[in-house]
Amino acid sequence: MLDYEIIKKMPKIELHCHLDGSLRYNSVIEEAKKQNIDLKLTENEIKEKLIAPKECESLDRYLESFELPLKVMQTSDSLKRFTYEVFEDSYKEGIVYMELRFAPVLHMDNGMTMKEIIRAVIEGMKNAEKKYGIYGNIILCCMKNYDEKYAIETIEAGKDYLGKGVVGIDLAGPELEGFSKKFKNSIRLAKNYGYYITIHAGEAASGNNVYESIKLLGAQRIGHGVRTFESSKAYNAIKNKEVFLEVCPSSNIQTKAVKNLKTHPFIDYYKDDIHMSFNTDNRTVSDTTLSKEIFLAGSIIGLSLDDYKKMYYNTVGASFALESTKNKLLNKMELFYKNLKGGIFYE
Fold first, then answer.
1. Fewer CB near the last or first residue (10 Å), C or N of the chain?
2. How would you write the pLDDT of the chain (347 residues) with one tens digit per residue?
3. How far is 160 from 145, CA to CA, in rounded Å?
4. Contact at 8 Å (CB) between 29 and 43?
5. All structural domains of the chain with their residue ranges
6. What are the residue boundaries of the Adenosine deaminase domain, all occurrences included (predicted)?
7. Which of 294, 295, 290, 282 is nearest to 254 (CA)?
């Protein structure tokens, strides 16, 4: 099984991370002061508000932890800053490629257009890429609890940035049974424009949501997919390597999608050679890092270095990165693997 210190040094890939769930405490406090926003909370209370309880009553309760961050994410400068910092924090724990997702519609309170919002987030990412050499892309979230017209607006706003920082579209937020039917037209539009598709499904509702996300929406990846086992059709699509799972272990415990890590379905999925990756979901809300998630999940399944290398390769393949970037990511793993086997350790 992989040692935690080795995990911290390994090249890692994050495919499922939300911007608004991954802010630094001090930056939230500083931005509130800078923007003259009275949060009516002490600094300790702010920190407590940013982290969801270890065990929430439901996914909806977990999502309440996003209310405070959004208050300080309504300006171009703050979006650039927070995006830059998420990539900086990720780089410092060995993440070499990250797909960061966010919902533009949630950042319009001060009058910014969706295009201005998307542009700011891309700029923050590009600044981090330039300084640290980390590779990144942006996934635009459409909110399931909003009317489909907002999804269409998001897709239209982001299309000019495809290939310039934006790669995919997602459906996120509270999960109702059968939500896919509501978004067939918007996701079809996204596919026609060239967006990759990843969908949150099977987290707070049934495995049939996973199947419909694949069948009706053409999902190439599924966020969470905890209850995929409930649908044989969804399971077979994933088993046949047509669809990739973005697993978020700690988050699933918090939202009561699973009782505990030892009963998480990813264990059986992994044993059945389903392709998946481990992810943070929300670095701050779940009080975690990718190194921690890999260690926790890896401890359950006995993840070895060779196992991790295989998972890393599968994750690179499932990423929405350019082929040239994928080749660079594979080279990073080959170099690490060679050096580790040769007894050379990174500082």
1. C
2. 889 999 999 999 999 999 999 999 999 999 999 999 998 889 889 888 898 877 777 777 887 888 999 999 999 999 999 999 999 999 999 999 999 999 999 999 999 999 999 999 999 999 999 999 999 999 999 999 999 999 999 999 999 999 999 999 999 999 999 999 999 999 999 999 999 999 999 999 999 999 999 999 999 999 999 999 999 999 999 999 999 999 999 999 998 899 999 999 999 999 999 999 999 999 999 999 999 999 999 999 999 999 999 999 999 999 999 999 999 999 999 999 888 876 654 43
3. 25
4. yes
5. 4-341
6. 11-333
7. 282
3-class state of residue 143 by DSSP: strand
Q: DSSP letters of 30-99?
A: HHHHHTT----S-HHHHHHHHS--SS-SSHHHHHGGGHHHHHT--SHHHHHHHHHHHHHHHHHTTEEEEE
The single-letter DSSP state of residue 282 is -
| Burial of 189 (C-beta count, 10 Å sphere; 0-12/13-18/19+) | middle
Write the single-letter amino acid at 274: I
In contact, 255 and 203? CB cutoff 8 Å: yes
Token look-up 């800078």 returns 34
Distance CA(324)–CA(29), nearest Å, equals 39
Q: How far is CA 279 from the centre of its chain?
A: 7
pLDDT for the residue numbered 344: 52
The answer to whether residues 276 and 247 touch, using CB atoms and an 8 Å cutoff, is yes
Distance, CA of 224 to CA of 249 (rounded, Å): 9
Helix (H, G, I), strand (E, B) or coil at 13: strand
Q: Which residue has the tokens 């939202």?
A: 255
| DSSP, res 281 | B
Q: Does domain 4-341 have CATH number 3.30.70.890?
A: no
Whole-number Cα distances in Å, 328 to 37, 93, 164, 176, 322: 43, 18, 18, 39, 10
